[in-house]
Design a protein that fits this description.
The chain is of the alpha+beta class. Helix content is 21%, strand content 41%. It has two helices and six strands, in the order ββββααββ.
C-alpha cells in the first residue's frame, strides 16, 4: 500500500456480515483549503457506519483524508464527498459523517451527512 495521498479506499471482508454493528472512528487531523482564501481549514472528522459485506481499511482512509490537504473545498461539499466516497467503497447499511471545523472568523462549523438512516 502506498504512503502517498490517494483518493482510493481499500476494503476488506466484513468478519461478521450477519450482524449489525457500528464502526466508529475520529480523524482529528483533517485539513483542506478554503476555496475563497486558500487558507487552511482544520476539522475533526467523525465516522460511524454499519458495514454490510465490506469494511474500509484504515490506512487507506488516512491516505484518502490526506488527499484533501491541498484541495480547496467548502465544508458542506467536502463532508458530503467523504460520505459519498465511503458509501461507494463499502456500501454500508448505514453511515454518518460529521465534520467539525475549527473556528474561522468567529464561526465554528459542523456539517453532518447521513446515508440509510
Amino acid at each position: 500500500m502506498s504512503t502517498r495521498p490517494s483518493q482510493t479506499l481499500e476494503t476488506f471482508p466484513n468478519p461478521k456480515p450477519d450482524r449489525d454493528y457500528h464502526i466508529k472512528f475520529a480523524c482529528p487531523e483533517f485539513t483542506c483549503l478554503c476555496p475563497k482564501t486558500g487558507q487552511p481549514d482544520f476539522a475533526v472528522i467523525h465516522v460511524d457506519y454499519v458495514p454490510d459485506q465490506l469494511c474500509v481499511e484504515l490506512k487507506s482512509w488516512k491516505l484518502y483524508l490526506w488527499s484533501y490537504r491541498d484541495a480547496g473545498a467548502f465544508h458542506e461539499a467536502v463532508t458530503n464527498k467523504i460520505l459519498d466516497d465511503l458509501v461507494a467503497a463499502v456500501k454500508p447499511r448505514q453511515a454518518r459523517v460529521e465534520a467539525v471545523f475549527n473556528v474561522r472568523g468567529g464561526i465554528t462549523t459542523t456539517v453532518v451527512a447521513e446515508h440509510g438512516i
